[in-house]
Structures are given as C-alpha cells and as structure tokens.
Amino acid sequence: MKPYLTTFLFLCLALAGCDSLDQEPEATVTGSAVFSNERGLELYANSFYDVLPTANDIVRGDAMADYAARTQVPDFLLPGAFSARQSSGWDWRPLRNINYFLANNNNPAVAPAVRNHYRGLARFFRAWFYFDKVKRFGDVPWIGKPQSVDDPTLYNGRDPRTLVMDSVLADLNFAIKNITTTADNSRSLITKQTAAAFKSRVCLFEGTFRKYQTGYGLTGSANQWLTEAATAAEQVMTTGGFSLNAAGGTDRAYRQVFTSQAPVASEVILAAVSDPALSVYNDANWWWTSATYGSRVSLIRTFVNTYLNIDGTPFTSKAGYETMPFAQEVKGRDKRLQQTIRMGDYRRTNGNATEAAPPVFSYTYTGYQPIKLTLDDTYYDGGTRNINSLPIIRYAEVLLNYAEARAELGTFSNADWVKTIGALRQRAGITGGLAAKPTVADAYLQTNYFPGISDAALLEIRRERGIELVLEGFRFDDIIRWRRGPLMEMIWNGFYVPALNQPLDLNEDGKADVAFYQNTAPTPPAAGVTYVNVSPTLNGRANPQQLKNGTSGELTWLANVPRKWDDKFYLYPIPEADRLINPKLGQNPGWE
C-alpha cells in the first residue's frame, strides 16, 4: 500500500544523494544493509509501486476518448493547439531507482531465490515503466543500468521499438518465472499472476499495434506477440484462481467491482487501494459530480447504442431506435448500462434520505451521466473523500485480452467465446448468444466504428471491450493500436429530444426533470425542471449545446468546435525542453 512512509525514510538514508536520474547514489553502510537481507530488499522494492497509476489517474483515465463528451475539446485535438512545447511524460527518475536496485542486488548473504524474487519485482516495474513510454513516444532510449552524472550514454539517441519491447518482454518473462508470491488478499502487491496478466495486456497492445500500424514494417512479428498475449492470459485463466464477480446478481455485480472499499478479491488482480485508516482516498465523486472541478465527462449516444438488448440482439436492430426518447431507449438493455450511467430507478443517499437521481444537466452534456466509479452517497461529492478501491488489472480484462488475441490469430473457437465474451455477457444479464460466436457482422459497428473489420466475432470482441472496460482508461490506447484515430472526431451527441418546451421525465417517476428551449425559457418554470437553452446562438456566439435538427433531434455538444485527427497523433512529440538538452533524441514524424 502507498504511501510507504517507513520505506521513504529508510531509503533516504540508504540512497543518500540519489535525487535525480543524473546523480549516482553513494555506497554507504546503510546502503549495504539494504542489500544484505530480505527485509532491506522488501523495503526498497516497495518504492517501485509509485510507477503504478493512482486511483485518481484511473478516475481521469478516459477523459480523452472517442465516447467521452467533456467541457472542452482537448488541446491535443484542436488544430494547431498542441505541440512539443505542451508535451510531457519524459520523466526517467523511476527507472534510475529500479536500475540501481538491479545493479546492487547481488549480495551472496541473501539466498539466490530471494534475490531473484526481488529482481523479478524490479523487472516487472521496469517493464511497466517502459511500456508506458513506448505507448506514448514510440522509440525511446533503453537504459538497463544506473548512470552516473558524467556517463556519456545519457546523451545517446533513442533505441528502436523492437529492441525496447523485446527487453520489456524479457523483463516480464523473468518476473513471471521468479516472483514467488502467488497470492495477495489485499490486491495491492505484485504477484506471479499479476505479472502474467500485465504481460497479456502488453503483448496484445504490441501485437495489434504491429498488425494495424503498418508503416513501421513490423507486421511480420505481430503474431508472435499475439501468441504471447494469449498464452499469458490463458495462464491466468487456468491457474490464477480468479473469476468474474457474481455477488449481488446481474443488477449489481459489475459495478460492485468499482464501488467496494476492499477490492473484490474474486475478480480484481491489482488495485489502487483506498484506506481511510491511512487517510488514502480518491476524488472520484468530486471529479464526476461537480460542475466545475472535473471535466463533466458524459458518454455519447453513438457509443451507448452499442449496448445490446437483454436478449443479445443489437439495440440498433430495433425499428425507430434513432428517435427513441431516453426513458425508453435504456429499457431492456445489457445491465451494465444501468450500472454505468444514471437511468431508471437509480437513487442516491442524501443525509438520512434516499432520493431519485436522474441525469443532471449541471453535470452532463449528453444525458448519459456516468456513475460507474462513483459512490451513491452525496457525502463524497465535495472533495477527496472516496473510499472505493479502483482496479488497475482485473480478470475481465484478461478474458478480453485472450479473446482478442485468439481472434486476431484466427484461432478463436466457440469454446473460447463461451468462457470469455459469453461469460462477460452472462454476468451482465444477457440471455442470448452466449453459446457460440456470431457469424454475421453487425452493420452498426462496421459503419460507425470498424469499417475495415469483417470478422463478426472480432467485431463483437471489440464491442465487448468498449462496454466492459468503459471509463477505466483503456480506450485511447485501444484506438492507437487499432489505428482508429479518426474515431476521435466523432460527434459528441446526446439523447434524443422530441420537441422544444416539452418537459421530459427521464426516470419515469412521475416528475419532469429537464426541458429544452430556444431564446426565452418558458414561464412560469415547472418545479424541479432544469431548463437548457439550445438556441443556435448564445450571447452572440454559436451555442455549444444544440439539437441536431434545430428544434428536435439528438443533443449535440461543441459540434461547432473543430476536432481534427492527424496521423502524427498516434505518437506524442518528444518534449521540446528535453530535445534542447539532448538533440540526438530527434522528433516523432509530423511533430518536427
């Protein structure tokens, strides 16, 4: 668990002077004590956990995604608004810490198996560190040893992606082989199964990146990575002892994974653990239910349309789905929808009372207001108070990794479907299509998301991945590896509004919740109704909130603000300040 105050103090003594990538730690008596016994190795290894995402990182993980409308268009997608000057992420300090440990963990007073266990931990975290760097920047320098301030290799150029990713894979294989911890009830420590699950993530990303990002000349090695992904996922599936959470039934089991204080041990493999006893909280409620603090991220209708009917048929096969009002369109759907957004009979606790809680247009732009990561008590809304632990790796992702890797390899069977996609949909209450993979491609998915994919099963796997992992921080990475950047230009659309000045009862509790008008709000205002101005212009400027057809149609948000995908966005630029220090780094294509 973090923070490790004892670890920090111990290491400050042990590694006196090691406060930057460029400074060599001094060999001290205390430093020797660190590497001469298992307790010292354990304390040092605890410092590696800072490489992992925090709960707040997860909360914000999908703030830039194709399915996410938000307060403002990210600078990354605004023409001319983002350059190497705004780029970030070129921070190598965690690597220096890891490499120093690997170089010094060689004391014969410690048993070889113990040393290798901690070496495995260090190499796991080095793999995590480098995977993040490669996803963001592509080619990066591979640094496998601690460097002194006068080391000329500090100013080397970048190494090829192949060399770096082969090294990442070697690190993960070493970790899986040598980490001796096989179980951790807290779900906060790295185990052998954690390493295998993470390997399935890394290898799926790299395999599909090489397959679809054809400009790098790496397509010939894609299947090797996909095979590694399937093998690692299968190891977790057969020996990990994990299962999909079923507590609470199909109405609650999915969301419970994200709202429980203690990680749901059956499904969660690794978590960002909250602990009130240690004053470790997150700000999920504040970020998701504030009109000003967060980005007011809301799902868009094009994506919500991908949630199946409860019988397993596509919602978009229903006649008239395009003009179906909110209260009707959310009925009879995959039960993950009601555990992801406010709809139906969703209620919140306010003091000693529970209250109906339909979508609130102070917080949402589209009407599809997320609840997946938040708690239902309004107490948590006003600051960093959340006590729910959030998954970093969970079993559902492993199932999806396995399914996609096998489908990309052309070896995905009906049996594979049953134990992966079928199992996930059964947990979501879906009743049909669980026993065999589909044979007919869904036209809606092809038209709106994946025009280049004709394999019906692969389309459904991608549908399932989007729905199951929504808002967990995977989506932009998926778009990158699938080479589907143009999805980021998708219109931010909301639910269908049949007419102006018509109050809508969004949760069918007999009380109107919202009405849309142009120019002047109706008078007198109806009690409890939020009035939203959808006039074409507002204060002399184009109104960011409008209806698609003017006086009816889907809500649109910021449709008048240009968003343009450029293929250079598949990699971030090397930050300008770092290139000034080391011109040999060069720059990624298009960012020169």
- Can you tell me the residue ranges where pLDDT is under 50 for at least 5 consecutive residues? 1-29
Number of strands: 13
Strand order in the largest sheet: 7-13-12
Radius of gyration: 25 Å
Q: Average pLDDT, to the nearest integer? A: 94
Strand content: 5-15%
Helix/strand structural class: mainly alpha
Helix content: 25-40%
Straight-line distance between termini? 42 Å
Please tally the helical runs, counting DSSP H or I stretches of 4 or more residues: 20
Largest sheet: 3 strands, antiparallel
Overall 3D shape:
globular
Describe the protein in words.
With 592 residues, the chain is mainly α. It has 20 helices and 13 strands. A hairpin with a 5-residue loop joins strand 12 and strand 13. The longest helix is centred in the first third of the chain and has 26 residues, at 112-137. It is globular.
Descriptive tags:
three-stranded antiparallel beta sheet; 8% strand; mainly alpha; 20 helices; 592 residues; two-stranded antiparallel sheet
Question: Secondary structure elements and their pairing?
Answer:
Blueprint: H1 5-14, H2 29-35, H3 38-46, H4 55-59, E1 68-69, H5 93-104, H6 112-137, H7 161-178, H8 192-212, H9 222-239, H10 253-259, E2 268-272, H11 284-288, E3 298-299, H12 301-304, H13 326-329, E4 347-350, E5 353-356, E6 390-394, H14 395-409, H15 414-419, H16 421-427, H17 443-448, H18 456-468, H19 475-481, E7 493-497, E8 514-517, E9 530-533, E10 537-538, E11 541-542, E12 545-547, E13 553-557, H20 576-581
Parallel strand pairs: 8-9
Antiparallel strand pairs: 1-3, 2-6, 4-5, 7-13, 10-11, 12-13
Helix pairs in contact: 3-6, 5-6, 6-7, 7-8, 8-9, 8-14, 8-19, 9-14, 14-18
